[in-house]
Structure formats: structure tokens, C-alpha cells
Amino acid sequence: MDHVIFAQIQDAVADLLKADHNTANHHMKRLAHLLHSDPLNELSSALKADVDFDQWMEKGLATSTNSVGSSYLEVPIEEKSRFGLIISMIDYCAESEHGIKSLSYEFFYAGNDVDQNVRSMTMKLLNPFCRDYIAYAQK
Questions:
Q1: Which parts of the chain register pLDDT below 50?
Q2: With contact defined as beta carbons under 8 Å apart, do 106 and 71 qualify?
Q3: Closest Cα to residue 116, out of 26, 24, 29, 32?
Q4: Cβ neighbours of residue 16 closer than 8 Å, sequence gap 6 or more
Q5: Domain limits for position 41
Q6: Does pTM surpass 0.85?
Q7: Chain centroid to CA 23
Q8: According to the model, what pLDDT value does residue 67 have?
Q9: What angle do CA 88, 11, 47 make, to 5 degrees?
Q10: How far is CA 139 from the centre of its chain?
Q11: How many domains does the chain have?
């Protein structure tokens, strides 16, 4: 497997940590593009095919206590489901102009600063995903 693509994925996630509300969507698009480019597209598509992203979001939103940022996403432990759902989330954020802002606000709230919410989502979800997905893809 081409190690350059893995370095590019790590760079995209690192760039998200430094992103602000004006640039975060660009980095999510870049990450989604990398996950669906050769040689990873077949793996990423297969992982996504076995999950129901909409149902996962509905279950997460149903955990809200009507307080800002109180919703919780139950991220599966099992690798294939976890990777499929997170790839679906990355794709959703890349396709939606406000996807990363709204999801980070809803599930990874760190305060009224959108940039901090995006960083929280990146540190708590995307960094571990990146590390684990790369290890899985290299097997």
C-alpha cells in the first residue's frame, strides 16, 4: 500500500486541528477525497456499505437533553462498523457546507467558539480514526 496516501490523511487531520470555521470544510473535503481515492476507495466504500449512517445520527440526536452539545454518539468498538460510520460522517461533512460545524456543535461541544468545537471533534474522533484506519488498511 502506498504510504504517501497515509501521510496525506494524517496531514489532513493535522490541518483540521489548526483550521478555523472558514477552512474546516476544505480540509474535510480533502480528507473525504483521500479516503475515496486509489488505493483506499474500495476499502472505504466496503466499510460504508455495511452501516446505516442516518440511523446512527438519529440515535445520537435522540440522546440530547435539550442542552447545547448534550447529544452523544455511541461509536462502535468493532472496527468495521466504527470505520464505516466515521467515513460516512466525513463524507457528510464534506458534502454539506455546514456539516462539520453542526455535527461538532451537536456532539463535540467545547463552547460557543465554532473553531473549538471543530478541534474537539478532530481530537476526540478524527485523530483516533485516522490512526486506527491507517493501521487497518495496512494489514
A1: none
A2: yes
A3: 24
A4: 24, 27, 28, 31, 118, 119, 122, 126
A5: 3-138
A6: yes
A7: 15
A8: 83
A9: 25
A10: 21
A11: 1
